[in-house]
Amino acid sequence: MKKVFTRYVTIIRIIDGDSIVANIDLGDYLCFEKRTIRLANLDTPELNGDTEKERMLAVKAKLFMESKLLIGQEYLFISTEKADKYGRSLGSIHDKEGKDLATQLIQNGFAIDYTGGTKKDWSI
Questions:
Q1: 45-69 burial, b if ≥16 CB within 10 A, otherwise e?
Q2: Three-state SS for 56?
Q3: Using an 8 Å Cβ cutoff, are 44 and 115 in contact?
Q4: What is the CA radius of gyration of the chain?
Q5: What CA–CA distance (Å, rounded) separates 74 from 95?
Q6: Which domains occur in the chain, in start order?
Q7: Which of 88, 90, 72, 71 is nearest to 80 (CA)?
Q8: For 9-32, how does the pLDDT look when each residue is reduced to its tens digit (9 = 90+)?
């Protein structure tokens, strides 16, 4: 059985369409400061992608995240995963209406479901 951790995060910065930096409230006046968090099970285009099309889609994905997550505001973070190979926390973040951001990114065409393997060619 996977452990599920529900915490609140305060947004410090949006890195790209699927990664942010935030302070994670651990309770009891403890905080994991400036932690990089990646949305689990999805892939967004890279800001430094190989093609202009991919880079433009990446900017749109980042702008979408910036429209949903305001700097200094607190949001629900649910982590069901261990850290990824880069040490980032993995999980889902929910906007002020309680909607999962990964689902919204996918529904708006800014991301795809991704659980490993070959990544999407965003230039197509």
A1: bbeebeeeebbebbebbbebbeebb
A2: helix
A3: no
A4: 14
A5: 9
A6: 5-113 (2.40.50.90)
A7: 90
A8: 999 999 999 999 999 999 999 999
